[in-house]
What does this fold into?
Amino acid sequence: MNRPAPIILALDASGEACSVALQCEGARVIDRLSLEPRAHAQSLLPMIDEVLSEASVDLQQVDYIALTHGPGSFTGIRIALSVVMGLAYAARLPVIAVSSLDVLAMNAELPSLVSGQCLVSCVDARMGEVYWSVYKVLSGQLRRIDDYAVSTYSDFNDAFKALLDSESNIIGVGSGWGLAQIDIDDAVHTNSACFPKAVKLLEYLACTKDLSSCAQEASEIEPLYLRNEVAWQKRNRIRTKDL
It folds into this structure.
């Protein structure tokens, strides 16, 4: 007898958008999305209340809480992590943290991709840099084949040119591909308008065979910043001074 699908509450606040999704009753998904800038702190909890209420699910009935823990907006990541910790402690729930770059990669329409095809998630990291990672379609699923990275525009362009020497028909997703400083080859099909979303986080988790092996205590979850926080604060002070 098959076990019922777990009830998962998913959150994303790693970028300018903010979203919540609840997987309940098998394939049923209820979600909310806010595109209001700098309003994550005000939006997350009300959206969580809305999806739980619509599904008639209590927090104590949830099996897992999932979130994107970076890279992305320092403020958004901290807000989401704080909300998740509060909920997880209150209901004693396990937490699953997933990279926003992995979730972003799920915007590619997997059924239309051929085996061995390459995909690059690339996000505008501001301050002349991008966050990025490389994936391949293997056994019908997207697999990350390299570490997450933060690079200057020129370093990313050099790395991407090297990738083009061994790959063709690459797909690019994320806001980084919309930057004028990023070189886009004719072999690349890009979607710079897509972004990580809680519903895509649920799709990512649906490809995970054993969720329990990915779950952690809330106290064990750490932000995935990539960029050194001290350096970020220093650069931010310099930019503020120059204004």
In short: Residues 230-243 have pLDDT under 50 and may be disordered.
